Amino acid sequence: MSAIIGAVFFLCLFLIFYVYAGYPILAACVGFFLPRPVRRNAAGEAPRVTILIPAYNEESGIQKTLENKLALDYPRERMEIVVVSDGSEDRTDEIVRGYADQGVKLLRQEPRGGKTKALNMALHNIRGEIVVFSDANSIYSTNALKMLVRNFADPDVGYVTGKMIYTNPDGSTIGDGCSAYMKYENWLRRLETRAGSVVGVDGGIDAVRKDLYKPMNPDHLPDFILPLRVVEQGYRVVYDPDALLKEPALNEEKDEHRMRVRVTLRALWALYDMRHLLSFRKYGLFALQLWSHKVLRYACFAFLLGAFVSNALLWNAHFLYKLCLVAQAAGYGGAALSPILEKRGIRVRILFFLRYFVLINFSAAAGAYRFLKGHKQVFWTPRKG
């Protein structure tokens, strides 16, 4: 019996290591030995672009976002800005209409149908050959649009995502953890791009060839389903670190938890609906990436639980098991202690990261539970910085 429990323990440890370190090492090796560089073009005619901004009750930030988009370094006659108001009940529509004389177009979805349905509706009312997706609180660097679209000079590229940077400088637990997590994700996307295609993207600074856009179900997660459908059509999804997006991080743990649960739930439904992409026979390397970066990542909470429980059962088996269990308990204890210490003015950075690590895996567990119960989510409250 101890042998079986020991096998479970080491399997869980291996999977945790693989998800966060082994897979990036594998992606780096593939990219080193079989690189697939993106043939970017910094010059030439700028393609016609539509910036699509879905919004629901965004009166507090939509003006700043529109000013930012209008100031981008891109030929104005080749750029269209469209805001899709998803049944907004505040002053969002009024603010957007104030920019009509500058060419900003307002579309309204009534009644409220959710972000994905709003995007589907908007695609019939835009002119651009390249569609750029922006959140209502996304602030682009001046040259971000040029950096995004230059990748489409490569005929194999169908979808491009940029680099998200969290901007809050307050050093809050969730803010710091969020920032570190995004740095890790951006590093991994760089490795995946060199190997072939990126698996995860940032919905606030993405671009797709309009003719590759396929309408999605209202409960689909656009940032996940759309890139998968681009790969399904034989095109690459790539990451450009020079296309910069700034967004405020979430400072409240409950806000971050709700967002992570929602993303996990919708991503799991997306994986289920696109499960044919998990076939190694048909999709080879990308199937391996999808299993590694998404399926196993979302299942990591189970590996963490399995490692802890099996380790506890092996307490008397060997001194090394005692050390491992103490180390695990210390990690979880440190994560729990972090907010208490922070309230007393004691800031230990490593504890911030441990707490965020625990948070994202706990949220993944909650999202997985809702998925298994058959729940779906179409509507949600916008992120709060």
Describe this structure in words.
- The chain is an alpha/beta fold and 385 residues long.
- 51% of the residues lie in helices and 14% in strands.
- The protein has helices spanning 2-33, 62-70, 92-97, 115-122, 144-149, 173-195, 222-232, 253-273, 280-298, 300-313, 319-343, 349-372; strands at residues 49-55, 79-86, 104-109, 130-133, 139-140, 157-166, 206-209, 236-247.
- Helix 1 crosses helix 9.
- The chain is globular, with a radius of gyration of 22 Å.
- The chain starts with a helix and ends in a 13-residue tail after the last helix.
- The model is unreliable at 169-174 (pLDDT under 50).
What structural category arises from helix and sheet content? alpha/beta
User: What distance lies between the first and last C-alpha atoms, to the nearest angstrom?
Assistant: 50 Å
Q: Tell me, what's the shape? A: globular
Strand content: 5-15%
Strand order of the largest sheet: 3-2-1-4-7-6-8-5
Query: Major sheet: size, sense and barrel closure?
Result: 8 strands, mixed
The residue fraction in helices comes out at 40-55%
Task: Please tell me how large the radius of gyration is.
Answer: 22 Å
Q: What is the average per-residue confidence, as pLDDT, rounded to a whole number?
A: 91
Overall strand count = 8
How do the SSEs run, as a string of H and E?
Answer: HEHEHEHEEHEHEHEHHHHH
Q: Helical element count?
A: 12
Low-pLDDT segments, ≥5 res: 169-174
Short description:
The protein contains twelve helices and eight strands. By secondary structure, it is α/β, with parallel strands linked by helices.
